[in-house]
Specification:
The protein is an alpha/beta fold. A hairpin with a 6-residue loop joins strand 5 and strand 6. The longest helix has 15 residues. The chain is globular, with a radius of gyration of 17 Å. The protein binds adenosine-5'-diphosphate.
């Protein structure tokens, strides 16, 4: 089974992807995480990736599809989080899956109010060591409860970059909603609720194992 999560930045793609992977024994592919890892290396590609991510722009399709095809080769059963992000990636992805004798079973479209997403971005902290994500609205200690590291803000989690990501989402990513709707595989889920309630809706769509 292959599932795509589609949503505005900070709608909960990462959180729900992890829940789905655990419950349905699927592998998580987050292009954001793959890119952050690629950006941490010290080569010419990393500079290009870092620069675009810091500006909230999309990374070139060829870089993304290379990263993804390397991940899926010879394996099956994935949750794709943050990919595809525009129509050309969606079409390239269809070809890639066909070559691997695979298909997309569900596209879960997490819906959320822009203002709620913006607030989530502002209160999002991440652990630089184990990558756990936290939502912290008060002045409490920003320490990772799993590995005790000091939490940090992602460099692109600020209002200016969020606004750019929102703009890119509307122009580039939103058109793929109709692309998958026409194929009859798009399912909408209200992502403004608590994570477990969002996951309950997803389980109703995919079914219990
Ligand atoms: P969010 O969904 O919160 O914006 P992600 O971690 O999914 O966060 O993505 C962070 C950034 O990584 C994006 O703003 C973009 O620069 C880059 N990125 C992630 N996935 C893709 C993709 N499929 N195509 C192009 N760029 C991507």
């Amino acid at each position: 089974m292959n599932i795509i999560f589609l949503a505005l930045p900070a709608a909960g793609k990462g959180t729900q992807s992890e829940k789905v992977c655990k419950n349905y024994h699927l592998q998580h592919i987050s292009t954001g995480d793959l890119l952050r890892e690629a950006a941490s290396k010290n080569d010419s590609l990393s500079m290009e990736i870092k620069d675009k991510m810091q500006k909230g722009l999309l990374i070139d399709d060829s870089i993304i599809t290379n990263l993804v095809s390397r991940e899926i080769k010879g394996r099956e059963g994935f949750v794709f989080d943050g990919f595809p992000r525009n129509l050309s990636q969606a079409k390239l992805f269809d070809e890639m899956l066909k070559e691997n004798n695979q298909k997309i079973d569900y596209v879960i479209y997490l819906t959320i109010d822009e203002e709620v997403a913006k607030q989530r971005i502002l209160s999002r902290f991440v652990c630089p060591v184990c990558q756990s994500v936290y939502n912290i609205k008060d002045e409490s200690d920003k320490i990772c409860s799993k590995c005790n590291s000091q939490l940090v803000k992602r460099e692109d989690d600020n209002i200016e970059v969020f606004n750019k990501r929102l703009e890119v989402y509307k122009t580039d990513t939103a058109p793929i909603i109709d692309y998958y709707k026409e194929q009859g595989i798009l399912f909408e889920v209200d992502s403004s609720l608590a994570p477990d309630l969002v996951f309950d809706q997803i389980k109703k769509i995919i079914g219990e194992l």
